[in-house]
Input
Amino acid sequence: MTERVAIIGGGKIGEALLAGLIKSGKPARDLVVAEKSAERSAELTGDYGIRVTDDLADAVEGARVVFIAVKPDAVDQVLQKLSVTDDDGESERITVTLVAGIPTSRYESALQAGSPVIRVMPNTPMLVNEAMCAVSPGRYAEDEQVDLTVRLLESVGKVTVVPEKLMDAVTAISGSGPAYFFLMVEAMIDAGVSLGLTRPQASELAIQTVRGAGALLSESGLSPVELRAAVTSPGGTTAAALREFERAGLRHAVNEAAFACAEVSARTARRVEVESSGKGVQLGVETASETQ
Output
């Protein structure tokens, strides 16, 4: 990869992307971060040997791809600055947003006419290079530009391309999904303590169990149904536990949770579009992305 990349925002997600790109072989000279905090800038420069600037226009100069990794309430300011910066004239600059809840149309209307925009829903496992990123191209993004974005994001995990109309569903499954998983582990640890284990013992047992189960699911080639059946003996201990999950309505709860998450995601996007209509780049987004 030789394309120059600018990352706007040096927070956790911005740093995770930066670290993944460097680990994948991206030369530090082809990376630049725009970050306001002097302390944070010093940390990134010291840890990764890349250039960090507090001047957004300077950061994006000559960049082929610009990743926006800021909180939603900072997007309006970023768009204002990006809208008056020119690309290098040789290859059209791609704007890739990692910000939750803001549709590509909002970026397209704020940037120069015809600007290619690609929306990404990452999740927090990006912090350990195990992200699940969903990519949705805007109206002006070409296949080659989408392919380039996918290749860059593969440095921090897996990537899938979906139409933007499915982004609410993506948010419900992978974007917010880690929180569902963490809640389940928390409940398993509490149950272990109730059964007499110390909290450190219960934590080690639960965390390694779900880690191993995830690896088995990912690498075995078997479906969740097949793996569950393999560990469930008729009339045995696992069967008794699973019967209680079904009695408590686990499947229904997961389904209702996913639909509730998707609805809030859709409401947020609708509010952004309504509030931004006729107001320049004033976004009015109240909820910050959990992935930032």
In short: The beta strands are 5-8, 31-34, 51-53, 65-68, 94-97, 117-121, 131-137, 157-161. Residues 280-292 have pLDDT under 50 and may be disordered. The chain has two domains: 5-163, 176-248. The longest helix spans residues 250-276.
